[in-house]
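Weekly structure sync, notes
Attendees: PL, DS, HV (note-taker this week)

Item 1: NAD(P)-binding domain-containing protein
DS walked through the input record. Source organism listed as Pseudoalteromonas aliena SW19. Sequence as pasted into the shared doc:
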Amino acid sequence: MSKTLIIGASGQIGKMTTELLLKNEQSVVALVRDKSKLSDLQSPFLNIVEQDLEGDFSNALKDCEQVIFAAGSGGNTGDDKTVLIDLWAATKAATYAREHAIKHFIMVSSIGADDPDSINGDLKPYLVAKHMADEHLINSGLSYTIVRPGTLTNDAASLTVTTKRPQDQDKAKISRENVANALLHIATNSPNGSRIFELFDGDKPIKAAVK
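Item 1 (cont.): predicted structure, written out as tokens:
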């Protein structure tokens, strides 16, 4: 059975993904800064590693076959944390993954990370960080999937999505639960090669939309 490292496993999408993988009896290494945030998760398939992403967390990748990077600095932090987590920790994770011969790396990025210059305002530093982290992964030599969700919501999972950006910007959104279910599908269906796609709530079952 493959073992998946989830970086940022105590975050909203990270924890949802961890729970889904465990329910599917997948072996998970959950990397968190504070393991008490996962105290409600009990599973023989779970191993919790407590480390700070601002330090060296390379040992967490030992014996893992794939990585899901779902960590984020959060909306209440400054640009310094955006650089340290969304950029620097993400690039370190890809470097560690290459050193550990990880088979596949799944990056949770963001809509707009392909072209940060198209955005002005407070969100731009975040998108620049995501863009540079994505570029580092693309050039790493790893097999990868980069998922760029639209605006995140707390709606319940519809389990139907689209990879085509809606023309109406107000519809360019997706529930965190739908993202987590898409990550589950990717992690349990060995991708062939590398790919990048945006993801929104839509009308196609995840299996059909995220081939």
